[in-house]
Amino acid sequence: MTAALPGFAGRTYLFEVDNGAAFRNAYSADGRRLRWEGLGESAGQWEDVSLHVAEVAPLVYFVSWTEKSGITVSHVMDLNALTVKVFWTWEGEGGRVGELHTGTLTPA
What are the residue boundaries of the MoaF-like domain, all occurrences included (predicted)? Predict the structure, then answer.
């Protein structure tokens, strides 16, 4: 038995975060990879990352990855409401720092 593809597989979204950050997130056809591209202040930044994915409710996904810089990102993507809860962490002065944000998804 094969697992169903996640609902975001093969799709691209504009992801706008409550702190003003914006990204173009393009997911691979199998839903196992993401190419994110920074927009606005983050323009020119991008990375292709491997994803860890679990469906936690119909069309609601926990998605996590680690970037080359050491930043970790975890999303709870609700494709029903086109919203995201995101938690990212990075190495800061005195140890690991984390931030929790909300955002919206717009199909691109």
Answer: 9-92
